[in-house]
């Protein structure tokens, strides 16, 4: 059973639906596993809890 973890900033439910479908399809196509066996976990980090180059993304 493949388990995929996606770390990202907040996204809309529509974008997350599209993402998990495409990730699932990639595993089905490349590994030949059934779609029902693929788990995708999305962990969202708010902009004030994540930095790039020493600056919070909330401050950009």
From TrEMBL:
Swiss-Prot/TrEMBL keywords: Isomerase
Keyword Transport applies: no
Coiled coil stretches, renumbered: none
InterPro entries: 4-OT-like_dom, Tautomerase/MIF_sf
Gene Ontology terms, MF aspect: isomerase activity
Keyword Isomerase set for record: yes
Domain of life: Bacteria
Domain 4-oxalocrotonate tautomerase-like: residue ranges: 4-59
NCBIfam families: DmpI (NF041920)
Family designation: Belongs to the 4-oxalocrotonate tautomerase family.
Protein name per Swiss-Prot or TrEMBL: 4-oxalocrotonate tautomerase
């Amino acid at each position: 059973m493949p388990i995929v973890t996606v770390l990202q900033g907040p996204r809309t439910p529509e974008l997350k639906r599209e993402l998990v479908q495409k990730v699932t399809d990639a595993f089905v196509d490349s590994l030949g596993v059934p779609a029902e066996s693929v788990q995708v976990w999305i962990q969202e980090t708010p902009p004030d809890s994540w930095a790039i180059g020493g600056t919070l993304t909330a401050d950009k």
